[in-house]
C-alpha cells in the first residue's frame, strides 16, 4: 500500500521533458575560490598562535613501596596575548604535573598553569619567551549569526595543526561542565571536532576568535560546541588576575533574548537584549525569590542586564549572602524581586 507522504516523490517518476542542451550550467568555481580564500586567510592569521599541548599526570600509588604511575594526554590551545598567555580547556590540563606546548614551527616550551576554572572548562597557561609571540585576540567585532562560516584549528587525535571548517549551527546553547554547572551562551558548530581539538580556537572568516572548542556529542554527526569568546575573555582576565574564579549563584540557567521595541519604549529601557531564565533550580535563591521560568532579567543590583554574560559578571562581583534587587519582565509587566545569592559549593 502506497503511503501518502511518498505521493509527491512518486510523481517524480512520471515522464519529464528532457533538459535542453542549452540550459546554462552555473559556474561555482568562483564561489568556491572565495570560500577557500576566506578560510586560508583566517588560518594564516590565527594558525601561528595555535599550540599543541602535551600533558603528563602523576598518579600516586596506593602502595607506598611502589612508584606511582604516569599518564599522558594532549589537547590544543592558543596564545591570546603577545607576552605568552595561552588559553585552553580546563579538562585538558587538569591535574597536570608537567605541561609542554609546541608551536607550528616546532618551538617547544614548558608552560606554567596560571589559573583553572572547571566551572567554565577554561584554563590559562603561561610560557616565557624572548620577544613577542604571534597571538589571536579573543572577540569578534560583529555579532555572530547562525549560518556564518566557522573554522576550527587544533590537534585532533594527534594530527597537529589540523583545520576543519563549517558554519555556526546555533547560538545560545547551554551545556554542563564537569562540575555540573551550566555553561551558557555556547556556540554550536558543524566544523568537525575530535579528541585533541579541545582548547583550540573557533575562528570566523575574518580571522577573529569567536570561541574555544570544548566538546562533541559522541556518536552524533556535525554537533560540536565551543565556549563563546565573551565568556572566555571574562574568565581569562580573572584567572590572570586572581588565579581562580569566585562565584555566587542564584540557580538560574539563562539565554540571551531580544526585548520587544514596544516594551523598550514603554519602560524607557537602556538595553535591547536581556537574559531569560530557561530553568530555575528547586530551592535555589532564585526559586526562593519567586523567579519563574521565562522571566526576563532586566536589571540586577540596579545594573542593566543585556545578557547572560552580564549576569555572570555581576554574580562574580556580588558578595554571597547580600540581598539585591532583581527586576524581571514577566509577560509585559516589570516586577521587582529580592534575591540573596549564595556561594557555589
Which features characterize this protein?
37% strand; 7-stranded antiparallel beta sheet; 21 strands; disordered N terminus
How many helices? The count is 7
- The residue ranges in which pLDDT falls below 50 over 5 or more consecutive positions are 1-25
Structural class, from secondary structure content?
A: alpha+beta
Could you tell me the radius of gyration in angstroms? 24 Å
Distance between the termini: 61 Å
Helix coverage percent: 10-25%
**Average pLDDT rating:** 84
Provide the β-strand percentage band. Answer: 35-45%
Number of strands: 21
Q: Which descriptor suits the 3D outline?
A: globular
Strand order of the largest sheet: 5-4-1-2-3-7-6
Order of helices and strands: HHEEEHEEEEEEEEEEHEEHEHEEHEEE
Q: Quick one: biggest sheet?
A: 7 strands, antiparallel
Q: What report would you give on this structure?
A:
A hairpin with a 7-residue loop joins strand 12 and strand 13. The strands form four sheets. A seven-stranded antiparallel sheet has the order 5-4-1-2-3-7-6. It has a six-stranded antiparallel beta barrel with strand order 8-9-10-13-12-11. The protein has seven helices and 21 strands. Helix content is about 20%, strand content about 35%. The radius of gyration is 24 Å and the shape is globular. It has helices spanning about 5-10, 30-45, 90-95, 230-240, 260-265, 285-290, 310-315, and strands at about 50-60, 70-80, 85-90, 100, 110, 110-115, 120-125, 150-155, 160-175, 180-190, 200-205, 210-215, 225-230, 250, 250-260, 275-280, 295-300, 305, 325-330, 335-340, 340-345. With about 350 residues, the chain is α+β, with helices and mostly antiparallel strands.
Amino acid at each position: 500500500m502506497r503511503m501518502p507522504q511518498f505521493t509527491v516523490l512518486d510523481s517524480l517518476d512520471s515522464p519529464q521533458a528532457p533538459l535542453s542542451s542549452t540550459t546554462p550550467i552555473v559556474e561555482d568555481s568562483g564561489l568556491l575560490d572565495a570560500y577557500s580564500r576566506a578560510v586560508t586567510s583566517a588560518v594564516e592569521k590565527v594558525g601561528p598562535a595555535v599550540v599543541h599541548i602535551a600533558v603528563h599526570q602523576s598518579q600516586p600509588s596506593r602502595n607506598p613501596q611502589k612508584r606511582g604511575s604516569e599518564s599522558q594526554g594532549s589537547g590544543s590551545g592558543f596564545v591570546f596575548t603577545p607576552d605568552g598567555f595561552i588559553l585552553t580547556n580546563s579538562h585538558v590540563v587538569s591535574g597536570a604535573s608537567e605541561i609542554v606546548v609546541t608551536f607550528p614551527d616546532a618551538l617547544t616550551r614548558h608552560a606554567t598553569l596560571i589559573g583553572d576554572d572547571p566551572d567554565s572548562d577554561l584554563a590559562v597557561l603561561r610560557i616565557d619567551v624572548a620577544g613577542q609571540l604571534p597571538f589571536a585576540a579573543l572577540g569578534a567585532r560583529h555579532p555572530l549569526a547562525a549560518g556564518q562560516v566557522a573554522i576550527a584549528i587544533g590537534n585532533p587525535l594527534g594530527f597537529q595543526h589540523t583545520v576543519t571548517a563549517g558554519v555556526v549551527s546555533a547560538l545560545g546553547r547551554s551545556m554542563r561542565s564537569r562540575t555540573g554547572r551550566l555553561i551558557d551562551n555556547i556556540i554550536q558548530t558543524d566544523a568537525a571536532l575530535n579528541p585533541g581539538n579541545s582548547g583550540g580556537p573557533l575562528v570566523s572568516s575574518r580571522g577573529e576568535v569567536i570561541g574555544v572548542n570544548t566538546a562533541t556529542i559522541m556518536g552524533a554527526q556535525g554537533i560540536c560546541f565551543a565556549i563563546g569568546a565573551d565568556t572566555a575573555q571574562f574568565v581569562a582576565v580573572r584567572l590572570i588576575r586572581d588565579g581562580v574564579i569566585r562565584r555566587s549563584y542564584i540557580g538560574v540557567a539563562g539565554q540571551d533574548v531580544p526585548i520587544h521595541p514596544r516594551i523598550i519604549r514603554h519602560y524607557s529601557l537602556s538595553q535591547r537584549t536581556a537574559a531569560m531564565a530557561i530553568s530555575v533550580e528547586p530551592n535555589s535563591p532564585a526559586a526562593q525569590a519567586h523567579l519563574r521560568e521565562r522571566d526576563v532579567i532586566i536589571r540586577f543590583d540596579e545594573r542593566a542586564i543585556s545578557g547572560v554574560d552580564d549576569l555572570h559578571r555581576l554574580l562574580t562581583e556580588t558578595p554571597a549572602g547580600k540581598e539585591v534587587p532583581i527586576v524581571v519582565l514577566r509577560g509585559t509587566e516589570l516586577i521587582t524581586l529580592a534575591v540573596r545569592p549564595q556561594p557555589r559549593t
